[in-house]
Structure prediction request, 127 residues.
Amino acid sequence: MSAKKIYHTEEERQEARRIARRKWEILNPDKWELQKRNQRLKRRYGIKLDEYDELFTSQKGLCAICHNPPKGIHSSGRAHILHVDHCHTTGKIRGLLCTACNQALGMFKEDIGILKKAMEYINANSR
Prediction:
């Protein structure tokens, strides 16, 4: 049996835990990425990764607006994913969007009036 390490201060204990955690992260990069993603979804949107996956499956992996799959490679080197779209007032999740559609909604400030004006502008000037 190995002897249990005795820490003289709380700081020593916390540092040992931090080092052990970092070693685990290095040895288990795939599990670590999933954990981080799950934590980020929970913190930002109040959902777990399996709920995101259910929504992704229900949308057949396609953007809820343009119905295209996510395209390109993120600066991290990973493939792009669909972004969680939510109402900034209520927090209600509306669906998953590709990067372009997500950014477009943001640029239009999610304002239906501005979106309608943009549609009118395109219709009036595309002939």
